[in-house]
Amino acid sequence: MNLLRGYIREILTEGQLTGQTIRGVLNLLDGYSNNTWIFFDTETTGLHPSSAQLTEIAAIAVDPKDWESSAQVLGKFSEKIKFTPETRRLMNEPESVERQAWEEKQSKARRPLERPQDILTMTRYGQRDRSYGDEQEIMDQFFKFVDSFSNPLLVAQNASFDLKFLNVRSGGKLKRYPVLDTMQLMQYYLLPLLKTQTSAAKGNLEAQELLDKLYVNKGNWGYYSVSMGVVSKAYGISIDDWHNAFADVKMMMEMYKRVVQTIRRGLEVDISSHQAKAIKLAAKRRKRR
Questions:
Q1: What residue numbers bound the domain in which 50 lies?
Q2: Which of 5-19, 22-36, 61-75 is predicted with the least confidence, judged by mean pLDDT?
Q3: What single DSSP character describes residue 124?
Q4: Average pLDDT in the 42-61 region?
Q5: Is pTM beyond 0.70 here?
Q6: Alpha-carbon dihedral of residues 115, 119, 120, 122, nearest 10 degrees?
Q7: Which of 40, 120, 174, 276 is the most exposed place for a label (fewest CB within 10 A)?
């Protein structure tokens, strides 16, 4: 696991996605215009790769063409994964070691699931018209898919989660590639920009309307969300198939384009104050994990 932490730290800091000005981060993104952008997503049976497995991997490889027009699709990948013996015991044998360990974790969770099958309902696992492959074989196929393109740039929402699963479940086979985390892009640039624009003396009606749509009310408190579903809905992008890996990849591509368009319109805005708060908050969250 220490190897994994080092891998994630190195691969995500290469992008230098924190602490840039808006012009700086746009220049950073433009610097990858000659790369093959591979938007990808995974679905799993849980949050920890030591006790959960991958159930789906999906990806779309594109030539971004500087994102001035529709990106050219170069290839698609979409594969479902069958259960490992451990997962079958977890799902079907209440007295198994796997189920007992799962129930112990759920007893300490803030939002516990009633059954291990509940997460599969969210991800639409079990389609009868699909073939299901071996987890290791599907990961190998995905790695070959990525390697088949020149200068791959991996793009994912909350990329560390997907990278962690791929690297741990494959036994460390995941190569090092430049990675763009769309969640970090929104945390450190979209939200700080919108907050800066709305707090300006004259305000900004367009920014306020979008910021309001990103607010999630939780009874007596709330927060501004960078969840893919919330952000996509705010931009009017369909979220009907959210948590289906291939649908999520298509959603992510459209969301990325719309987010960068918003950021580009704020090119000269100084977001440093709200960005510093976002970076500090993210650091606190990492310490609590």
A1: 2-288
A2: 5-19
A3: T
A4: 93
A5: yes
A6: 130
A7: 276
